[in-house]
Automatic annotation (TrEMBL):
Residues 140-233 are annotated as: Disordered. Keywords: Cell cycle, Cell division, Signal. GO terms for molecular function: peptidoglycan binding. One of its GO terms (biological process) is cell division. It comes from the Bacteria. Residues 1-20 form the signal peptide. Residues 173-182, 200-215 have a biased composition (Low complexity). PROSITE patterns: SPOR. This is Cell division septation protein DedD. InterPro entries: SPOR-like_dom (IPR007730), SPOR-like_sf (IPR036680).
Length: 312
């Protein structure tokens, strides 16, 4: 009889060890892996003085002009996209550079009415200008910084062998670590009286109470927060094409009508300038780079040589 009782106690102890191991492994969970930010080249306009650069007097004759913001000079061979600076007040604007066909007396640089408005130049007043060509250039973004070392790696001793496999800590079982309560003595039944009737399962501990020694505490897992959907791959930072700017609303409407007849989605936007308002004519938006390039090529075919992508 004593041998059977010892075998029964050993069997109960052995069956309890895997249950404790399962509880220990289920309590640990790893968080979602962090994704490194995407990197890649970006296109940016930079000054190209080796293509074209000049400094000289410019003049606006006071008459309204078409074509948006531009300047013209005799030495220009091909149209260029340039940055125009008013040296006297520090204002600058991007626009087009054309060849000036007729030789006129006075300053060699002719200024459009919209360029004069943007640069703060009065009619009939010669102004010192700086003109530099622009070129698009791809700029590579720096790689993202590497993630910092985890706390576990920092806690490792400096003299530890890099090739050694860490020992797995033994799993504490209730039979080995938690002290067992002494069974109450009964007047009859002896040792086998402990196994005659099964005690009822203890009620789950409420908030503020402590679970009895040796019991397996079940902790509910934290709810998983839904992750937001990634941004659409087709979204563009600059989905619109600005084809021209005008200081006269009538000229802006004429340009918009010309683009509308070519089946382009066009808008005229009023902007309050420092001295007076001006109007921007934009087409779009595009949903892909291919569609935006096609819109830009179409705008240039219509005669808007200074068209370029914008964000709004």
């Amino acid at each position: 009889m004593t041998g059977r009782a010892g075998s029964f106690v050993a069997l109960v102890t052995v069956a309890f060890i895997p249950l404790a191991a399962c509880q220990t492994s289920s309590g640990s969970s790893s968080g979602p892996a962090l994704q490194a930010p995407e990197t890649g080249p970006i296109v940016k306009e930079v000054e190209a003085p080796e293509v074209f650069q000049m400094t000289g007097k410019g003049l606006w004759d006071g008459r309204p002009s078409l074509g948006g913001i531009w300047v013209a000079h005799y030495d220009v061979k091909d149209p260029e996209r340039v940055i125009i600076r008013n040296i006297s007040n520090g204002k600058s604007v991007t626009g087009a550079l054309f060849r000036r066909e007729r030789v006129m007396p006075g300053p060699s640089i002719q200024i459009s009415s919209d360029a004069a408005e943007a640069l703060g130049i009065l009619a009939g007043q010669p102004t010192e200008l700086s003109i530099v060509a622009l070129r698009k250039k791809e700029i590579e973004l720096p790689p993202p910084p590497e993630p910092a070392a985890s706390d576990q790696s920092q806690a490792e001793p400096a003299g530890a062998d890099a090739g050694a496999v860490p020992e797995t800590p033994p799993v504490d079982t209730p039979a080995a670590s938690a002290p067992t309560a002494e069974a109450p003595r009964k007047s009859s039944g002896g040792f086998f009286g402990l196994f005659r009737s099964k005690p009822k399962a203890p009620a789950a501990p409420t908030a503020g109470t402590t679970a009895p020694s040796g019991a397996i505490e079940q902790t509910p897992l934290d709810p998983v927060e839904p992750q937001s959907a990634p941004a659409s791959a087709g979204s563009l930072a600059r989905p619109l094409i600005q084809i021209a700017t005008f200081t006269a609303e009538e000229n802006a409407n004429k340009a918009a009508e010309k683009a509308r007849k070519a089946a382009l989605n066009v808008r005229v936007i009023r902007v309050e300038g420092s001295a007076r308002p001006y109007w921007r004519v934009v087409i779009g938006p595009a949903t892909s780079i291919e569609e935006r390039d096609a819109m830009l090529a179409k705008a240039k075919e219509l005669g808007f040589a200074d068209a370029y992508p914008v964000s709004s």
